[in-house]
Amino acid sequence: HITSTAARQQVNKRFLSHIERAVAEVLGIKQAKISLMASPAKHAAHPPADARESLFPDLAEEAPMPEAEESASSTPALAEALPVRAARMSNDSRRRTRPVRQYSAPAQTAPASNGAGALRPRPQEPQPPTGGYITNAGDTSWLNDRYTFANFIVGKANQFAYAACQAVADHPGHAYNPLFLYGGVGLGKTHLMHAIAHAVAPKGLRTLYITSETFTNEIVNAIRYRTTEEFRAKYRSVDVLLVDDVQFIAGKESTEEEFFHTFNALHEARKQIVMCSDRPPKEIDLAERLRSRFEWGLIADIQPPELETRLAILRTKAEESGKEIDDSVLAFLAEHAHTNVRVLEGLLTRVIAFANMQQQPVNIEMARQALYSITPAERPKRRISLGEILAAVSAYYKISLEDLRGKQRDKHIVMPRQVAMYLMRTDTQQSLMEIGMELGGRDHSTVMHGCDKIEQELKREGSQIAQDIEAIRQSLAG
User: Which alpha helices (DSSP H) does 244-297 contain, by range?
Assistant: First the structure.
């Protein structure tokens, strides 16, 4: 469609011959005669969808061409694109390596010698990519099957975040909105977000899970391809928005601006927003108005799992593998990954693979061999035994070995006993259970408590225990 007489005259003068040649080659005819008429219309930058689809059915799924920015150019997008295509066709005739695909128009739409035809060329630029994962009416195909509430190991370090996510899944948009999760790498933030999506899927809610990187890339593409309306419609039509690693939008002005408006639109419509980050909102360099919205709802942190939770995770993983693994091996592995559940599971996977390769049962010695090359803790700082450390502590504090191993809880015995626990753990490669056995059959939790007490004391400025430990280490080295 030509929207004005002036535009028709310009197209006739500058492009008509090119258009006719292009039409003839596309339709596979010898010659085409086209007459252009001015037809005022509000949205005439490209032909109606039904005309395009009837002429080129295999192009019907492509996105519409962008509209011309201003009428002053007097050159609609269609008229600009066709001469370029015609010139390419002409130049390609000498070097074409494959035949040009021909399109046959239905009889009722074929242009007559004195009629007007409607053509839609292929877009010259790729269409903007889309990202994220959207769930509709119970579809969970994009979700990780293992990341459910049932498979999440709950401990003291994560029970608050777990309960908050369950409440959100039960009453999306009403319980805690927004919900902001934060914690270190590999502690289960993504697991909980997938679990929420699993739980709300049967409710038929439209759920969108996306990373902040994908959100930023989509904004860039929306600006480039002038599809900001489609971008906004996509994000503001969901019932549950899950944004992973939201800290990465910091410092990106356009991204922060668009996320601010998206947040407002969803929150006002009582749609659920869940975000996760590696740090709390106050530590993210965001615009104040956006940070205040992140802090609007509930903030839940996830701490590194304590020993008992790490053991429970390893037992679950071992059961899934079908491999019989002794608790002493699991305790040994649990001591070597304190802050990352993924690393913890990776250590177990490596040990199981090593045992399968050797065709032997899993034991502590095999676990040491499997982890030696990748875990610095498996490289002993000194080749000393637990007995040597206990003897050195006994000589330094002038306390008998029987008292150190015994049940007495007098202060002058408890503190040296805890120093022995600390040195055995930090200066050898032995497990907590082995250390406990050396100290009279004590439980691993008792050893952990003793080590923690010494670590707290070492943080005190001018601590006498720090001098004692250094002196004992020198005696062992000498």
Answer: 253-268, 288-294
